[in-house]
Amino acid sequence: MRDFSYLRADNIEAARNAAALPGAMLLAGGTTLIDLAKCGVVEPATVIDISHIEGLNAIDVTADRALIGALAKMSHVADHAEVKSLFPAVSEALWQAASAQLRNMATIGGNLMQRTRCPYFRDPANFPACNKREPGSGCSAIGGVTRGHAVLGVSEACIATYPGDLAVALVAFDAEVDLGERRLKVEDFFLAPGATAEQEHDIRPGEVITAIEIPGSAAARRSTYIKVRDRQSYEFAAASAAVGLELEGDGRTVRDIRVALGGVATKPWRARAVEDALKGKALDEATIREASELAMQGAVDHGANHYKIALAPRVIARAILKLGETA
Amino acid sequence: MTVHDVKHAASDSARLEAVGGRLSRVDGPAKITGAARYAVEQQLEGLAHAVLVDSTIAAGKVVSIETQAAKAARGVIAVLTPDTIMKLSVASDWFGNPLAPQRTFCPLARDVTYCGQHIAVVIAETFEQAVSAAALVMADYDQAPALVELGDGTAGEIISIEGMTKEWGNAQAALAEAPVHLSAVYNTQRSAHAAIEPHGLIARWEGDRLTIWEPSQWLDGMARTYAEWFGIPFENVRLVSPYIGGGFGSKALALAHSAVAAAAAKMLGRPVKLMLTRSQNFTSYGGRATTRQTIDLGADKAGRIQSIIHRGVSEVSLEGMWVEAVGSITSIMYDTPNFSSRQDVVRLNTVLPNPKRAPGENPSAFGIECAIDELAHELGLDPLEIRLINYAEQDPHAKKAWSTRQLREAFAVGAEAFGWAKRSPAPRSMRAGHQLIGWGVAAGAYPVQRAHGEAVVKIMFDGSVEVESSSIDMGQGTYTILAQTAAETLGVPVSQVSVKLGDSHFARAGVTGGSRLAGIMTGAVHKAASQALDELIGLALSDPRLPFHGLQANTLAVKDGRIGSPRGDGPELSIAELMSMLGRDRIEAKGDTLPAGTTAEERYKNYTTIAMSIPHTEGDYSRHSWCAHFVEVKVDEDFGTVRVSRVVSALDSGRLYNPKLAESQWKGGIIMGIGEALLEEGIVDRRHGRTVNSNFADYMLPTNADIPDIQTISVGIPDPHSSALGGKGVGELGIVGVAPAIANAVFHATGKRVRDLPITLEKLI
Question: What is the ipTM of this complex?
Answer without folding.
Answer: 0.97
